[in-house]
Specification:
This protein is of the alpha+beta class. The protein is about 60% helix and about 20% strand. The protein has four helices and three strands. The longest helix is centred in the middle third of the chain and has 25 residues. The mean pLDDT is about 95.
Length: about 80
């Protein structure tokens, strides 16, 4: 569901409660461009949990492959060059 920023301005944040009963997420457009997403906190927390789980798995895989540094100076230089 996409709504405009003007609709939010006119109706206030109460518009979200009604729309979230029908849709998992609401996209707010501003000047014709999609800018923001609104979702209930439970959905956000589940997505965030999944994101963190994926990051954790990637770290574990890097560790298993030996793809890490113990030399902080070397690591910081690599970061600076990215």
């Amino acid at each position: 569901m996409v709504i405009t920023a003007n609709e939010v301005k006119k109706r206030g944040v109460s518009i979200f409660e009604d729309l979230l009963k029908k849709f998992d997420e609401i996209i707010i457009s501003f000047r014709g461009k999609k800018k923001f997403v609104v979702m209930d906190i439970e959905r956000y927390e589940e997505l965030r949990k999944n994101e963190l789980e994926l990051a954790y798995r990637e770290v574990i895989e890097d560790y298993k492959k030996g793809n890490y540094h113990t030399d902080i100076e070397k690591h910081l230089k690599e970061i600076e060059n990215v």
